[in-house]
Amino acid sequence: MESSFWTLHLLRCREVLIQNMSIYSNIEQGVNADGIDINSCQDVTITNCKISTGDDAIALKTRYEDPCENIRVSNCVLTSSSTALKLGTESFGDFRDIRFENCQVLNSNRGLSIVVRNGGTVEDVLFSNISIECKRRHFNWWGNGDPIWIYLTKKHPTKSKVGFIRNVVFENISATGMGTSKIESTEGVRIENIRFSNFNLEMQQEDYPDKRADLAFYASNVKGLIMNNCNVDWNEKRTEQKWGSALYISDCSDVKVSNFRGRQGLLDSESPALMLSNTNIVTIQNYLTDKSTKTAVKVEGAESKNVTLKNIQWLSDKQEILIVEPEVIDKTSIQYIR
After folding, report:
1. Under the phi-then-psi rule, with left for phi > 0, alpha for psi from -120 to 50, and beta for the rest, what region is 207?
2. Which residues on neighbouring strands pair with residue 131, listed in sequence order?
């Protein structure tokens, strides 16, 4: 079909099964043509669907205070000029017990996203066994060719409530993208317990002249960020001059990075592979550096403290394992243990 607006919209429904459905709209002109919207519903299963659409492919929303709860999405093939699998942006009610599993995202402007603007709480969400291919669209589309985006803010500075995002797991995710994957809050630390396990990210050159990506992965205002068995690769032949660090973690706490492999974006760059800015209670262990990496980890910001590096494997005596900037006040709590 060639829908000009939301194709299938479920509102305040219970015990719904959607399976073996195909939805197609124009990915260049279907600017509001969502595939499936699940709005303030409970006990919904979506499986074995193929969706290609201009706007979000599958989106969960809470227009009312009724929650989106016990939602299962599996075995779907999705293409979107906005986001393939999304929670929000309508988030007046809560989202609980959500599972996205065994899906394939192709040629999408954004892969997976959670966007809270209206005060709801998102908790207990799993993204598992998902392959993602992101390609940037024109600037008027939502997204930057970014595989993952978690964002918490207030839609109206004085009218909107402030929500929470917590207990979200990404496991067995393989992603290729052109934009920076981000976890960020504009309202202080209201994102908690985010875990990545077996996450592989590959960065590609952007298709448009207005370059937006600088980092592979960025996290800000998160408490409890765990990254285990995560890898970042960059295209060595088609590069971008703005490419910087593989991981940039800012204003976070309780961070654990283990079994990480990755380097800075450009082979001859001075950018550190991992940047910690105003971040405390950090453990980085079992990190295999790249031979091109000049600085493995850099720590900056007066709020940075309690940072421990363990078992960092380097390939050259010319590499710096750890650089601590002068403004870091408690330098004694920054340590590297061989």
Report:
1. alpha
2. 104, 174
Residue 327 to residue 297: CA distance in whole angstroms: 16
Q: Which pair of tokens denotes residue 333?
A: 């709590």
Mean pLDDT, the chain, rounded, equals: 94
What gap in Å lies between CA 195 and CA 256, rounded to an integer? 9
Tell me the residue type at 224: G
Half-sphere exposure in the Cβ direction for 296 (13 Å, CA): 26
186 and 162 Cβ atoms separated by less than 8 Å:
no
* DSSP β-bridge partners for residue 234: 203
Are 35 and 63 within 8 A, CB to CB?
no
Q: Is-contact 299 325, C-beta < 8 A? A: yes
What is the enclosing helix (H) or strand (E) of 43?
Answer: strand 42-47
Convert the pLDDT of each residue in 169-208 to its tens digit: 999 999 999 999 999 999 999 999 999 999 999 999 998 8
Q: CA Rg, the chain, in Å? A: 20
Amino acid at 11: L
Partners of residue 108 on adjacent β-strands: 134
**C-alpha angle 14-25-106 in degrees, rounded to nearest 5:** 85
Cβ distance 300 to 277 under 8 Å?
Answer: yes
Q: Is-contact 99 130, C-beta < 8 A? A: no
Q: Dig out the tokens for 192 from the structure.
A: 């908690």
Shortest CA distance to 219 belongs to which of 200, 192, 241?
A: 192
Distance CA 98, CA 126 (A): 6
Q: What is the pTM of this model?
A: 0.95
Instruction: Answer yes or no: are the C-beta atoms of 99 and 128 closer than 8 Å.
Output: yes
